[in-house]
Structure to design on (294 residues):
């Protein structure tokens, strides 16, 4: 049995993922168009290889923003459909499964931050951008639920797109994800939402708000909230019994720090713990009712 020790809980923070390491786009293209015995599935001409390389380079300089020329409409239909079909090699147990594994390895879903990513999404849809079907920078990790919700996003309107988790940057030192706490009839209700702060460009703000609505972030996070908070219950109770609400606040704040370090300031776990640590009612003993102790 091999045990892996990891410095961090996951490789990424919420909203942001590092580009997969050790990829070689030309080699991956060649592998995807060749059978395991080395015989060709589809042969690209030298000119086509150059053209596809140019499209890949353009994708990088565009930082994944959709553009007509990335569609490669000057390539033949046969070539475009061979590229489209080549994605099957990225599926499990196929020729490019190691690329798949590198993209998904220990990555929390950047859209919801709830579960680990277990699927790959084409940031620019494969049906429209056949050229980018197996291009690693266009293959982003996502969880099944979020992927399902994203599927029908066309991205025609720039404000109605998901952010590019490899290329777009979101502030890490300023808070834009909020968890507004309210307690009604001993029930903890949290409103999770993205707010516009000066450090967020208007476009990124709109996209974050769009994608969060699309994946039902608020509703899904509310489902997670109580179970997540239960794991802090005895810590909170011990603090409360010894030193009252001040100690509960300090306990929640120190836990928020751990989550901030690992998952970022703008991860839902961090902002939830921070909001609760600032809630006098919750820390003053209401947490006992809310979490079902009384
Ligand atoms: Zn997700």
């Amino acid at each position: 049995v091999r045990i892996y020790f990891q410095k961090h809980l996951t490789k990424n923070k919420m909203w942001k993922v590092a580009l997969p390491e050790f990829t070689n786009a030309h080699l991956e293209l060649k592998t995807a168009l060749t059978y395991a015995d080395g015989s060709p599935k589809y042969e690209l001409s030298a000119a086509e290889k150059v053209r596809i390389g140019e499209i890949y380079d353009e994708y990088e300089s565009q930082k994944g923003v959709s553009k007509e020329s990335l569609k490669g409409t000057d390539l033949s239909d046969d070539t475009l459909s061979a590229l489209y079909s080549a994605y099957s090699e990225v599926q499990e147990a196929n020729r490019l499964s190691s690329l798949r594994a590198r993209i998904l390895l220990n990555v929390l879903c950047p859209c919801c931050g709830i579960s680990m990513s277990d699927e790959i999404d084409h940031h620019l849809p494969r049906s429209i951008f056949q050229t980018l079907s197996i291009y690693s920078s266009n293959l982003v990790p996502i969880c099944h639920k979020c992927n399902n919700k994203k599927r029908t996003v066309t991205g025609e309107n720039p404000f109605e797109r998901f952010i590019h988790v490899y290329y777009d940057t979101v502030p890490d030192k300023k808070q834009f994800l909020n968890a507004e706490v309210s307690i009604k009839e001993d029930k903890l209700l949290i409103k999770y939402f993205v707010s516009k702060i000066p450090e967020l460009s208007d476009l990124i703000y709109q996209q974050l708000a769009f994608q969060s609505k699309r994946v039902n972030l608020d509703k899904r996070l509310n489902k997670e909230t109580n179970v997540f908070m239960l794991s802090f219950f005895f810590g909170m109770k011990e603090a409360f019994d010894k030193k009252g609400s001040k100690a509960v606040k300090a306990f929640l704040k120190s836990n928020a720090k751990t989550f901030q370090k690992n998952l970022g300031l703008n991860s839902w776990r961090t902002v939830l713990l921070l909001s609760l640590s600032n809630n006098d009612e919750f820390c003053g003993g209401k947490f006992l009712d809310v979490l079902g102790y009384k």
